[in-house]
Design goal:
The chain has 561 residues and is an alpha/beta fold. The chain has 19 helices and 22 strands. The chain has a ten-stranded mixed sheet, with helices on both faces. A five-stranded antiparallel sheet has the order 16-17-18-19-20, with no helix packed on it. It has a three-stranded antiparallel sheet with strand order 15-22-21. Helix 2 (43-56) packs across helix 12 and helix 3 (85-94) packs across helix 17 (459-469).
């Protein structure tokens, strides 16, 4: 169902379709667009980060994003008010809400649970993204910067398609074969030899765990990855080995701005979300402040450049973080010193504390906490630490560790969980959950002529605004129809078969024949084999096992005629 038909049907049926009425007629296209997403960041997390920065640095009373805050965004999945990163960022990138775990893929129909009407016939169809459209329609350079591993949900949402966000073996090759100009983040172990070979053969610098090489590289196209999977939290990283999110953002802008057609860049502060899941206020605040500095770099470039728009927004909330909690008696009367002094003393996240504890003998425990937290553990806390699973240097044998005899409020089982609880217990910060939450998130934006999206917006309206900034209104649906057509429709009337995965290929292969012509189509790449050699496409081919369907460009039919 095309979007225009969808709107007409919705109107006839009097369906509630919020978000489709956004007026973007006054938005003039810009040359460059930078979207920055602090994953899983609630407004309370922003407030806590703001207080931490101001308390520690009285001469810095503002975040870089402060002057540009202009509204809120209601984010959700297609069938649930609370979404995970995959469907929520998918909506920003495609204009369609989707279901938990889906990466830029049309959702399956869920009856009355659907918040928006869905077309069951389109379930599992890949949906063209703003990044793909910027590259294909306008010839713009494209880039991704993040601190998670590269096939993780948010960067994947911009440049790949899958109904299962964890299927990195499907997502990673798509990201490589989508010819993104600049990719900087985590995940060296996930870039296989075939992917490296493709990148190098196509003029990319592939720089792995090499900060000097990252800084010296002079080419315009690069994949620079650090750490086997995700990068460490900003406060835990070794700056001699791993760059900051700000530095990665500046490097991406430097490379991408060489394209005369302009560029699209997505920057994710990935691990604000991870820290919120862990209920670790140190990770939440310090990674958000690192993200804010990256925003500062993007905004600085945009103001100087004059042809760049910047949009900053989280994908969803997380953890129900609060400044003040019920068990902290009289918290609403506490001074800024009483509320924020201890938070300012932490020099590591819970994850960072765990690394220190596991790399030094148990005799060093109190020194570690004095050095990085400003206090020593009391007897109950020390006993709870010794009984944590994952504490390699505990004097208590693994077989003897249990919650018996451990203060119930301190027992957490795992080392990281205990440390998060310990860090929080010395503050008046609270958490209601270790999962995502459904509140609206903040919206900040910079536009050269100040045509910004003020007020409350749905995630669909944000996609319309992003498309308007690049003159792409209506183009995503056209591109989806053109680049992700069902193979049964494209090759109707021709002989074709799907060869199952085997020794020669880890994925099924679509083979199409017509007289003396033949196509061999492998999924998750942009390469098609013909009798005359390989053909390189400007989009990726996606295979969905749920319906045994290849989604591919309709123009492939021309190679058989």
């Amino acid at each position: 169902m095309k979007k225009a038909t969808f709107f007409l049907l919705a109107a006839c049926l009097n369906l509630f379709v919020p978000g489709y009425a956004a007026d973007v007629t006054g938005v003039k296209p810009v040359k460059n667009l930078i979207v920055l997403i602090p994953d899983g960041t609630s407004l309370a997390a922003v407030s806590l980060a703001w207080w931490k920065q101001w308390y520690e640095n009285p001469d810095k009373p503002n975040l870089f994003i402060d002057p540009y805050l202009c509204g809120t965004v209601r984010t959700h999945s297609s069938n649930a008010p609370i979404g995970d990163s995959a469907p929520t960022t998918s909506c920003y990138m495609t204009g369609y809400p989707s279901i938990t775990g889906f990466v830029s893929t049309y959702p399956w129909h869920d009856g009355d649970n659907d918040i928006y009407p869905t077309d069951s016939a389109r379930a599992y169809q890949p949906l063209a993204t703003v990044l793909e459209a910027a590259k294909i329609v306008h010839g713009k350079a494209t880039g991704l910067v993040f601190t998670c591993e590269f096939p993780h949900a948010t960067p994947a949402d911009c440049s790949a398609h899958s109904y299962k966000r964890g299927k990195y073996e499907w997502i990673a090759p798509q990201m490589v074969h989508n010819d993104i100009d600049v990719v900087i983040g985590g995940g060296t172990s996930l870039l296989g030899d075939e992917m490296k070979a493709y990148l190098q053969a196509n003029g990319y610098g592939v720089i792995l765990d090499d900060i000097d090489g990252f800084r010296r590289y002079e080419g315009d196209k690069m994949w620079s990855l650090f750490c086997p999977k995700e990068m460490p939290y900003d406060i835990d990283r070794d700056p001699a080995k791993i760059p900051s999110l700000e530095e990665m953002t500046r490097k991406a802008i430097e490379k991408l701005s060489a394209n005369e057609n302009g560029f699209f860049l997505m920057v994710e502060g990935s691990k604000v979300d991870w820290a919120a899941h862990a209920n670790d206020p140190v990770g939440v605040t310090t990674d958000f402040l690192a993200f804010d500095r990256a925003c500062g770099a993007a905004l600085e470039f945009a103001r100087e450049n004059g042809e760049t728009a910047v949009v900053i927004l989280p994908d969803h909330g997380n953890s129900g973080l609060s400044i003040g909690r019920a068990s902290c008696t009289g918290y609403d009367k506490l001074t800024k010193h009483q509320l924020f002094h201890q938070l300012s003393q932490y020099k590591l996240t819970a994850e960072g504390f765990a690394r220190q504890l596991n790399s030094r003998p148990a005799s060093e425990v109190q020194n570690i906490f004095r050095q990085y937290a400003g206090f020593e553990l009391n007897e109950a806390e020390l006993k709870a630490l010794y009984h944590c699973k994952g504490y390699k240097n505990s004097p208590v044998p693994e077989s003897e560790r249990s919650e018996k005899g451990v203060e119930p409020s301190l027992y957490s089982g795992s080392l990281n969980s205990f440390l998060s609880k310990l860090i929080t217990s010395r503050t008046c910060i609270g958490f209601t959950t270790g999962g995502h939450t459904g509140e609206e998130v903040f919206l900040a934006a910079y536009y050269p002529q100040d045509t910004r999206p003020f007020g409350m917006h749905t995630n669909i309206e944000i996609n319309r605004y992003l498309c308007a900034l690049f003159g792409l209104e209506g183009k995503l649906d056209e591109l989806t129809e053109e680049k992700f057509a069902r193979h049964q429709d494209v090759f109707n009337g021709y002989k074709y078969e799907i060869v199952p995965a085997g020794e020669k290929s880890e994925f099924p292969t679509l083979v199409v024949k017509n007289k003396k012509k033949k196509l061999e189509i492998r999924p998750f790449t942009n390469i098609v084999k013909t009798k005359n050699g390989e053909v390189k496409l400007n989009s990726v081919i996606v295979y969905v096992d749920k319906n045994n369907t290849f989604y591919l460009p309709s123009a492939l039919l021309d190679f058989l005629r």
